Every structure is written in C-alpha cells, then in structure tokens.
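Lab channel / #folding
Pinned by the channel admin:
"Please post every new chain as: sequence first, then the structure tokens as a reply. Keep commentary short and put observations after the output so the thread stays searchable."

First post following the new format, from NK:
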Amino acid sequence: QVQLVESGGGSAQAGGSLRLSCAVSGYTVNYYCMAWFRQAPGKGREGVAGIERNGRTTYADSVKGRFTISQDNAKNTLYLQMNSLKPEDTAMYYCAAGALSSCYSGSWRSGHGMGYWGKGTLVTISS
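Reply from TO:
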C-alpha cells in the first residue's frame, strides 16, 4: 500500500527557513514523479516543486531561488527546503507522487497524473 506522510511544518518568521519531509512507503521514490504542492486559505492548489527520476527539478516562479526539492533514495524520503520564507508562503503543504510522464510533460503542476497524496503539513509564516 502506497503511503506518503509529510512532516516538518510549523511556524516561522519571515526570512526564516523550514524543511519539510515526506516519508514514502509502498514504492521507491525514484520510480515516480515526485512533487510538493500547497494550498493557502481561500486559494487554489499550487504546484510548488517537482523532481524527476534523474533528479531534474522544476519550480513555480513564486518559490524559485528560495525553495529546493530533493529526494534521498536510501531513505525513500522527499524533502522541501524552504528559505527566505514570506507570509504569502503560509499554506498547507502536500507531497504527491505520480507517473513519470507527469514530470516530463509538466502536467504535474496541475496535479494531473499525480495519483498518490499525503495528508499535508501546515506552514505558517508571520511578518
């Protein structure tokens, strides 16, 4: 059974850092397209960062240069290092996994093809 469990959320001040983790069980992370999404109160879901099997990464313009997605195949864990945090980064953050084609085509950004989702971890950034 595939399971994704996020952790590492919490509160931080603007300019600070947080690292989110997503522990994966039931499959090996580098067999899938892996990604982080977020949803702020009253807003739609946003694809934040995606990583392909070969390690190629893609970011939303809103986080480019501040966030880094990575994965540890030995630990079967996905990470999101978030630096220079802003109040507008406040959201529930979700990790997701899907078909590799979702990464290749870029469709992961809309959630298309991402069949497995965690329950989320809350990030709150104060000014």
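NK: Residues 52 and 104 are 8 Å apart (CA to CA).
TO: also worth noting, Residues 100-105 form the longest helix (6 residues).
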